[in-house]
Amino acid sequence: MNFRLFISLCSFLFINNIFCQSFYxxxxxxxxxxxxxxxxxxxxxxxxxxxxxxxxxxxxIKIDGNQYDSVGIRYKGYSSVNITQIKNPFNVKLDYIIDxxxxxxxxxxxxxxxxxDPSFIxxxxxxxxxxxxxxxxxxxxxxxxxxxxxxxxxxxxxxxNKDFLSKHYQSRxxxxxxxxxxxxxxxxxxxxxxxxxxxxxxxxxNFYTIKSDFGWSDLYSxxxxxxxxxxxxxxxxxxxxxxWMHALNYSIVxxxxxxGYAQNYYLYKDNAGRFNPILxxxxxxxxxxxxxxxxxxxxxFTIPQAKTLxxxxxLYDVSVFPRPLxxxxxxxxxxxxxxxxxxxxIMEENFANLNYLDxxxxxxxxxxxxxxxxxxxxxxxxxxxxxxDSTVNNIINYPGISDLMNNRFNYLNNxxxxxxxxxxxxxxxxxxxxxxxxxxxxxxxxxxxNDVILFFRSSNYGIFQEITMLDDGNNxxxxxxxxxxxxxxxxxxxxxxxxxxxxxxxxxxxxxKRAAYEFYQYVLPINSGEIAINELLAINxxxxxxxxxxxxxxxxxxxxxxxxxxxxxxxxxxxxxxxQKWRLPNYSLPPNGYLILWADERSNQxxxxxxxxxxxxxxxxxxxxxxxQIIDSITFPNQSTNVSYAxxxxxxxxxxxNTPSFNYNNDFASIGQNNQFQFKCYPNPFQNRLNIFLDxxxxxxxxxxxxxxxxxxxxxxxxxxxxxxxxxxxxKNGMYLVLLKNSQNISIQxxxxx
Length: 754
Description:
This protein is 18% helix and 30% strand. The protein has 754 residues and is α+β, with helices and mostly antiparallel strands.
């Protein structure tokens, strides 16, 4: 069985019930209550804010009636906070004191006070649109009470934190930065990713806040490539994701962002080694903020100027401060056409059909009564009633959302490169009953194109490769010149994700239009024998550590095919009555490659950490797919410390006790096999010196391997000698293998440096 899907990245997350949380539903209001024991709680929060102290004060809170104790609370943001005002924004940390305390999977809550938005809906509406095209926060509305007094209506926005990263990137511990200057300079470069700070990380701390345990060198390398090696930008940056972010910001005139004063975004380095920009702080979208250095209008755009804001102003206006994340990308004519295509998609799918207005009206009706009752709001109820359609004058002029966007749509609809005759239709796979490792032909009917490109990859989160599609009659495309283009993807795995891009001299077009956030997918089943449980270690005393520095149980999977296998459709369990006990994240298992699962009952760590441990008394391990079909299983007996249970021959053979060959071929490390002569390693465990004694005096080669199978020392025992002393002071603590080989025999022993 094989089948084709039109699928988005987030569709996989639906399967995992990640996006099915009700906490951020926009069709109903949440109720959150703070209870402070300190009568001077506001003074305490004010003091922390003035001092720049990120500590919190404790409170008991209730979320829709569910009580949580010892919750940490502080103010959120900068410009929206003022100690003289009553209604300040809040940052709520549920697990501040009590570990793992959460509500519907969320441990942090961000409440915005809507200070720059008479409509109250700008933030939630903008995120709703953004989530169609890129990983973005969810957002809705909350009635907040403090000590049982109604404090007002707040916008409730999902935090961009490690949980967010796990949800969207299947990793959480890579280099991660919040890109906001500590002090915004209206005439400076801010967090624009220029080279001006130099190579010392201390110079970057005023512009970028590191949110990971490491990453400064990654950030500098990225900035260096972005500015000095433009042809390599796609190797260090998810360019398509960046184009979507710029297109969204320019569509809805969100200038409080990278396109304005270079702030309010995140950067996360994914498992493919590329930085991904992430939107943040959309509360001043739809023209609420119009100060920018993105043109000569340093004093700010007028509302009519915002309606006709050029989406390529950063490329054409020489007065702009450096914006390499835009200018250096837009200098590539293909990327510029892709960007305009994304911009067109956003406008067509949300504003041409007035879908945004339907969503806005639903939000308006949901919060109407709460706005009326909010005695601490910054605008009148009449302002709220009018601002969806009309400009509100209060300190500054806040454009009516529909007035702004109707005019913006009309302007962009006539923008150069926006109108074209390009059309992509009838995207098909030309195949019959394929198997993993076969070739897949893709065809598409494309009108008025100069170039047609097929982008493809083998699983989520990988980098799309590209191949030219041709209309020459030789690529399964029918007759030459019939506007049917074809291309072949060789050696496919169980998942093939792809989209088509076409362009002519003036414009570009995608199919599907939301590529690469959405794509077509061709799926094949994983059959028994194609991926195997290859090795396990149930008592890991000192063999190898996880990324958290723990000696945890582990299970090794091996891809027995010559194609890449995506793991997101696989489950592994230690209970045959619950085959879907733990779902594998979406990793790309390369041809004949290995994947380590940490069986440590720490699935909250994310990544490859399962929700069960291995029993040293023996049990069953079952690998299956989402249909309940068993791919592989093993029932293992009692286990010994630091001795693995592994397939010999590697990937296919029966299980035997083995010297652990973590993430490597089992064959060379089998205990009790190929031991044709005796030798002794002492002391064992060893420290800075290792003695090796043989029971013969033949010329013998000595190899020391690490647990990955890499040779780290190589010596020779000359004929007539039976002993050698090795300096091992440079070796790290851990397990190694000593292999001795002469003209006739091979013998292996395990050694440990401790």
